[in-house]
Each structure stands twice: as structure tokens, then as C-alpha cells.
Amino acid sequence: MNYVWYKTGEALLEEIRREPEAGPGELAFWYIGQMGLIAKAAGVTVCFDPVLADLTGADGASRRNYPPPFAGEELTGVGWAVVSHSHADHMDAATLRGLFQANPWIRFVVPAPEAHRLREWGILERAVVPAEAGRPIELQAGAVLTPVAASHETYETDTQGRHRYLGYVLSVNDVRLYHAGDTVCTETLIQDVRRLGPIDVACLPINGAGAEFHSRGVQGNMDPKDAAYFARQTGADLTLPMHSDMVRGNEGDPLLFAYAMRTLAPGRKYHIPQLGERFLYQKCNIA
User: Which of 60, 208, 226, 286 could form a disulfide with 185 if both were Cys (CB 3.0 to 4.6 A apart)?
Assistant: First the structure.
């Protein structure tokens, strides 16, 4: 399959920098591959799971299906980088160091058991915010990030009971965006997300799981049907299928997700994001 950036390089960077202030109930975001998303509203810019460098396997060959849109050190104006877990297609040393170089006051939210890794990579301790499930993090006045435990096939904790895999609900500008990170669909996850209030935008992995993945040591995620079921059960207004394109041998088909939405969650909105595409979410019925 050919993967093509809708917008990349300086054109994409300039678009992100010049994005006008969102109105009430609006959130602008850009898809940057895998579970990578840049969200912007109310004066805060949040980058979820950015991987803006090459990924190589044990043989030294690239594992990426397409190049990154730009390097981490080229992306300026980012206040927060949010990491769901320590796998290389979600937490990349070169990317995070580059973001720290370009944004001296940036802060990095990372699952508490993995926070030490960022310090080992040369990121100052004052910039690292260890995240624990259920403990909200105030990004600024009116912008709150709430970590949610994720099950990357299993719920995994350290000796202190802190989850290694997290998703996050970003509440800003009267919009709630759920970024799932890597996770399968569990009834516990559905209830955890529902407790945080109505979800406006859900960003979900769709590459699936199974024996073939396990034979290669790959932990799985929701498949298209799981993601559609999750969208229906949580009442998400708009759902984005993600984690389907960047890594060779770990792809998913967003068209299967579209079919699952039409059959399992009829009437629910979804959008298949294109690489480097800007999307402006506008919430209905804003008072």
C-alpha cells in the first residue's frame, strides 16, 4: 500500500503554528501517524505519542512505511507532550529530545513507571510529569488531562501498582478527547471512560491482536469491530481509527472500521484521518 502525506514539512509546521484560536466547543487536531496526534485549543498545544524519527529493527532496516513529516526539533509552540507507554512506536528518545530542544518549557506526561527513561535521555526532571491512572493533571486553567488505565492485552502495573499503559482524556474548550494509546476493549475500560463524562472525540487503535502477532512478540489492540463497539458503548460523538499504517507488519484497515461503524454503531460519526490532515472538531449544542 502507498502511504502519502496530505501535508508535510514546513507547510504542515506553518499550518500548526498559524492555527487561529478555536471558538467555544472547538478543537483543532492533526494526525501525524500511528497514534500520533497534535491537538490545539484555548491556547494550549498537546502532542500525543509523537514519533518523528526513524524506527529500525534488529537488522538495522527501517520499520516505517513512510517518513516522519518533520523532526521533533522542528516542531515549536508545543506546551505538552503526552506518552501512552514505552513501546518505540509511541515513545521515541530522538523525538522527545528534539521537542525538548525546540520547546524549552515543554512538559512531558508519561506513565509513572517509565518516567525514569526520559531523565536517562537527558530531559530535565522538572519537565517530566509522572502520570497515574485516575489522577488528573492540570495543563493550564481550563485544560485538564486525566490518565485512564489501558490494557495492551493485559493490565500491567509496577510494584507500586502504577499502570504501565495509559490512555488519556483531554478536557479543553468544552471538548473531551479520548486518546486510547494502545489497548484492547474491556468492559472496565468502557466504564472508566464513561465515568469521565461524554466523549466528543475518541482516537482508537484498530490494528487488532491474535496468534500471528504473538508469534512475532507483538502485543495487540482493538480491532475494527472492538473500536466500533467501544464507540457505541461510550457514546463518542466522533471516532478516529488510528494505529493502522506506520509500522510494517502491524497495519490495520480503516475501511473495515468504517464498515464496522455502519453495522455496529449506525448513526455515529467517524472520520478516517489522512497523514498530515487538519481537522476542526465543532461540538454541537454549545450553550
Answer: 226
Helix axes 187-194, 224-234, angle to 10 degrees: 40
CA distance 147 to 145: 7
CATH class in words for 9-271: alpha beta
- State the number of CA atoms in the 13 A half-sphere of 38 facing the CB: 25
Ordered by start, the domain boundaries in the chain are 9-271
Please check whether residue 52 is in contact with residue 70, taking contact to mean a CB–CB distance below 8 angstroms. yes
Beta bridge partners, 167, equal: 148
Name the nearest CA neighbour of 16 among 86, 96, 102.
Answer: 102
Q: Which residues pair with 62 in a beta bridge?
A: 56
User: Using one digit for the tens of pLDDT, what is the confidence trace for 32-90?
Assistant: 999 999 999 999 999 999 999 999 888 889 999 999 999 999 999 999 999 999 999 99
Has residue 232 got a pLDDT over 70?
Answer: yes
Angle at 186 between CA 185 and CA 192, to 5 degrees: 105
pLDDT in tens, 151-169: 998 999 999 999 999 999 9
DSSP string, 141-191: TTEEEEEEE--SSS--B-TTS-BSSEEEEEEETTEEEEE--S----HHHHH
